[in-house]
Amino acid sequence: MATVGSLEQPVDPLGDLPEAVTAGDGPWRVAGRKLLRNRTAMAAGALFVAIVLLSFSAPLYADHIAHTDPFQSSLTATTVINGKKVDVLQQGGGALKLGETPIGPTWQRNYFLGADSQGRDVAARVLYGGRTSLAIGIGSAVICSLIAVVFGMVAGFYGGFTDGFISRMMDVIWAFPVYLLAISIATVLLTQGITVGPVAISASSLWLPTLIIAVIYIPYVARPVRGAVLSVREKEFVEAAIAQGASNRRLIFQEILPNVISVVIVLLPLMIATTILTESALSYLSIGVQPPAASWGTIIDDGQQLLYTRPWVAIAPGIMIVLTVLSLNVLGDGIRDALDPRSKVRVKD
Amino acid sequence: MHHRTRRRTSLTVALALLVGVLAGCGGGSSSSSSESSGSSSAGGDHRGGTMVLAWNGIGSSIDPAVDYDQNWTLLWMLYDGLVTWKKVGGSDGNTLVPDLATSIPTPTDGGKTYVFTLRKGVSFSDGTPLKASDFTRAIEREFTVPGPVGSFYQGIVGGDACAKTPKSCDLSQGVVADDAAGTVTFHLTGPDPDFLQKLALPFAYAVPSNTPDKEVGPSNPLPGTGPYMIDHYTPNQEILLVRNPKFHEWSHDAQPDVYPDEIEIKLSLTSEAEVTQVEQGQADWMYDQPPSDRLNEIANQYTDQVHLNPVPQVFHMAMNTRVAPFDNVKVRQAMNYATDRNAIIKVWGGPQVATPTCQILPPDFPGYEAYCPYTTNPGDGKWHGPDMAKAQQLIDESGTKGQKISVICTPDEASKAICLYFVSLFKQLGYSSDIKVLSAAVEYPYTQDSSNKAQISFTYWYPDYPSGADWFDVVVGCNGFHPNSTASANLSEFCEPQIQKMTEKAIQTSVTDQNAANQMWAQIDKATTDQAPWIPLFLPRHIDFVSSRVGNYIFDPNVLVGGILLGQAWVK
Fold this sequence. Notes:
Chain A is mainly alpha-helical.
């Protein structure tokens, strides 16, 4: 289960200035410079960018290289290997001729990683799957962070009953094991989708898993934000602003928010890694992205039934998930080190 | 209503090669790999040893009043009824024979009264002698526990009252037991041509007359009269069957003596693990069907241990005839024309494990006449290939293009793959389509409940007993449709008054003239197929994978046994 570690103190981008810092440099520029000097984090960032670019080039690959529709069943399709026409689903051998096995990796333009049990090109589906997984992962992390910032700011700033109400609400969500909560919500919503007034989200829409994942992680961001707000609002510069008669709006948007936003920035890459994993888990359980749409989780689910004969169907998306999550975690650590090396903010599994 | 829940494919082996007597023709043939030798006496060198079975789970119950075919593979070896189907391979396995009764009675009083005489000297495994009143108790329990098919026995005098107020169920007027004379007399409110078949089902197995009105679990099983009894049950681990010391063979046809001394059932195994255990000799038979990615492996490396046999299930897509676009018969017919059955059979495991079909009744069933109007070059009753031009023409005429269609299926690999094929096909034909994957526990009740307006789903059907009524009065008949209910077997919600009249006439005719009724079932089959409430897809073959030490493999196609005659196979 994902948990967020305690935040000892609000993140201060000015903390631990390196000796080489030039007087007058802003805290963000300093942090940026520190991040750029962190080669491991930069390599991780480059890997993540490469994965994003590769995934979003899926239509190019499918249309112009593999010449395939990775969402269309191709049960009776054929392909050409070494000048020979072969079935994509091949009948079993032996006296009994049992079973139909998808073609394995051809290492050619089409069926580079072989076919799945629907006769679809696995390589093209992995790229399209990456697009979906990344979109849901990034989308749900951003939505989650936006909502969490609002809740955390309001709770931390106003305190009292408002804080108590929001905090207890967060406690209720937090009390459920995160995957159990996600599975329960997804299972219920998958039969009918969501309809709220004029807004209707169908069961097959990618917005459904995106919103479910965003909701379940709100407490994991809202709590650190609230903690940071509670700390910052006691600072002298906030008291000075209050003494000058600053309005609540000014206090929130000009004094407090700029000083707690780094908490979210540090958490965001880690949240994206976590939400990608959650999306994959839900899709693997058939309650996330609905076929024929592809995500890394759905492709692993497809490949599970072919582990004995065509392991690449499951291994390829598995590798993509590992590389993406690893790169995001390393990048997230780098950002944290750049913004606040003393912070203990973590999203753990 | 003969509502029936569906059991897993592995146990769904039912009534394959149907009764020559009823059908007026011989049964189908088993595959070349199927051995179907006659039964021999369970004595000699082969008697003894422990047969080990690999099984995912025992299902919901092991109480004969409650279990609806999940555990019938075991129940027939533990209990007995008045009549049963002959325990042999081939089509003869669907012949009714007397079991605890001395003979099968001819009904009197216009088909409303059946008098059975019990065999003498039969005892339950706890030593209690069998009595006539044990059968009254068994039928009453179907209402009081309650069991899933009380409606099967509602035609017994007092049955209606039992269905209305189960707690005060009293069938003493309808099932008259004379313990002293050893006779059981059934009085029906009207003739029921399938009554004897219903008495052969486990719901009517004898249980001691003091059996409580509540479900009895495997930890404390009811004593039975069969050759085995449950020694112990460890949840999620194993069940051990041992010889019933009170058993003696009173009829080789009905309940033959068995070879293995014990049957150990390993529970909670995945089908992958079951294959591995059988390959390595750690199990002798796997209950579940082998997963598709192991088929090639077992066929190549363990050819002699694989047995293929046809079963009378029909896998199909049920189209909801009351929800657009399938409320238009042209759309339903178009989908029948467009469906490439060979492509779907590839998903199922290839042409060796399934054959295409496009009608409701399976081959060798009473009333079956090959009929396939939805194919290229129709006329010989066989499916030759999809006719996309005809399909597209019908869809254009229907004016339904562009509508959205959700295809419902379960998360298992084959179901999902077949639904995905249809999503692609619908898109190809001009519809918008997506898939709705629901868990196995949710999917069937969801598709049955008409308030959900499910459009099309992948499913299958097989009969409880060899009668056209179990198809045309249930799964595609008006009596099988119950609006807003999760007990509505007619997923297509198909109810054509003209066809229903023909069905009722066929049921009445079958009381007196089975051959005439069979001819009527054939006409009903054609009329229903023309209306296309289903897209019939394929007829599966059952795969039995046994260990190398198993001998005397006999496939009994009957719904009760559902495959290998376990006690007749030897492991020594």
